[in-house]
């Protein structure tokens, strides 16, 4: 909405941070050296199969602490985009994730999705496809899913489209992030090589208390199914929300604080190990429902 009023991302985060112009330039300087110095960290939020509760993947989320103070991703990602740093930041995150997955390998048996947020700007880089290939090569069988946000509308430029095709040919998969709250029409689902939609947390927010909200989310799920897309429901915070997804949840996946918060790599490895053990002992047990 800020964009629609002609207010750029920079102004938005300056406002959010209550910062002056000088402080903002300072922030960008610090961000630049943090990226160059490898100080951007990555945490992981498990994604579960709703029917079984089992971990089927994880989303990689960038983290940055500036002088010990965590800066919200919405702030530093916007800053990076506005300051022309997002391609470097994105490359760094992708390399870090690939290296992390390599160390996770021994904990993972069977299919696993690792999703990474990318900025549309990265799809304009000629070198991006090679970065994706290297990442996939290091990830040995873990599926790399690149999340593209539809918030600003999806870029349907032929260059971007051909880049998407090349990424998929290389073995990566594409997800539309923040689905259902952006400016795009849904017809691009037909035009793009998309495999997953991630229903924005806003769509799940009221499903436990509002029948229309529930009906809306369920039709998004049905649409995804009809189109043969994987669907991830974001922002599940309560048992009631999880229950409101209904009983017909085959293939449906979800993320949210109810199940797991984003965590550091070591915790993710331990969490996956516990998940595997619990399920080996009692495969019918659903840890969140009932
Ligand atoms: P996103 O990709 O939609 O990621 C989901 C956000 O929801 C994350 O916020 C996650 O921590 C949060 N979340 C997960 N479960 C719940 C829940 O149950 N309730 C609530 N209220 N929130 C939940 P986070 O980590 O602050 O990231 C914010 C956004 O920053 C991301 O939204 C994504 O758009 C962007 N982002 C993060 N890392 C990267 C990155 O490496 N590259 C790019 N381009 N963008 C990134
Ligand atoms: Mg995402
Ligand atoms: Mg999302
Ligand atoms: Mg989001």
Kindly summarize this structure in a few lines:
Residues 24-276 form the EAL domain. Keywords: Membrane, Transmembrane, Transmembrane helix. The chain is of the alpha/beta class.
Number of strands: 9
Terminal-residue CA separation: 40 Å
**What ligand molecules are bound, each kind once?**
ligand C2E, magnesium ion
Strand line-up in the sheet with most strands: 1-2-4-5-6-7-8-9
Low-confidence stretches: 1-6
Beta fraction of the residues? 15-25%
Radius of gyration using CA atoms only: 19 Å
Question: What is the element string, with H for helices and E for strands?
Answer: HHEEEHHEHEHEHEHHEHEH
Subunit organisation of the chains: single chain
Count of separate DSSP helical elements: 11
Shape: globular
Structural class: alpha/beta
Indicate the mean pLDDT.
Answer: 89
Largest pleated sheet = 8 strands, mixed, barrel
Helix content percent band: 40-55%
Could you walk me through the main structural features you see in this protein, from its secondary elements to its overall organization?
This protein is an alpha/beta fold and 290 residues long. The chain is 43% helix and 19% strand. The chain has an eight-stranded mixed beta barrel, surrounded by five helices. The protein has helices at residues 9-17, 21-36, 73-82, 86-104, 128-138, 158-169, 188-191, 201-204, 211-226, 239-244, 265-281, and strands spanning 41-49, 55-66, 69-71, 113-118, 143-149, 173-179, 196-199, 230-233, 253-254. It has eleven helices and nine strands. The chain starts with 8 loop residues before the first helix and ends in a 9-residue tail after the last helix. Strand 2 (55-66) and strand 3 (69-71) form a beta hairpin. Residues 59, 117, 147, 177 line the site of one magnesium ion.
């Amino acid at each position: 909405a800020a964009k629609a009023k002609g207010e750029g991302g920079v102004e938005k985060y300056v406002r959010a941070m209550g910062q002056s112009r000088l402080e903002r330039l300072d922030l960008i300087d610090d961000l630049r050296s943090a990226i160059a110095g490898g100080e951007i960290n990555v945490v992981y939020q498990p994604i579960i199969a709703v029917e079984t509760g089992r971990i089927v993947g994880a989303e990689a989320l960038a983290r940055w602490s500036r002088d010990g103070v965590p800066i919200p991703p919405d702030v530093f990602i916007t800053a990076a985009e506005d300051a022309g740093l997002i391609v470097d930041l994105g490359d760094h995150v992708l390399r870090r994730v690939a290296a992390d997955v390599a160390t996770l390998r021994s904990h993972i048996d069977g299919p696993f999705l690792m999703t990474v947020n990318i900025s549309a700007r990265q799809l304009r880089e000629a070198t991006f496809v090679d970065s994706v290939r290297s990442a996939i090569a290091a990830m040995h069988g873990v599926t790399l899913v690149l999340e593209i946000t539809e918030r600003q509308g999806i870029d349907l430029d032929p260059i971007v489209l051909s880049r998407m095709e090349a990424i998929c040919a290389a073995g990566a998969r594409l997800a539309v992030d923040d689905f259902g709250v952006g400016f795009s029409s849904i017809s691009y689902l037909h035009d793009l090589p998309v495999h997953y939609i991630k229903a924005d947390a806003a769509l799940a927010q009221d499903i436990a208390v509002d029948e229309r909200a529930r009906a809306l989310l369920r039709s998004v799920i049905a649409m995804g199914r009809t189109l043969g897309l994987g669907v991830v429901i974001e922002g599940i915070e309560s048992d009631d929300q999880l229950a409101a997804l209904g009983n017909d949840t085959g293939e449906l996946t979800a993320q949210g604080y109810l199940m797991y918060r984003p965590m550091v790599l070591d915790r993710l490895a331990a969490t996956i190990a516990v998940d595997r053990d619990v399920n080996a002992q009692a495969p019918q047990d659903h840890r969140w429902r009932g």
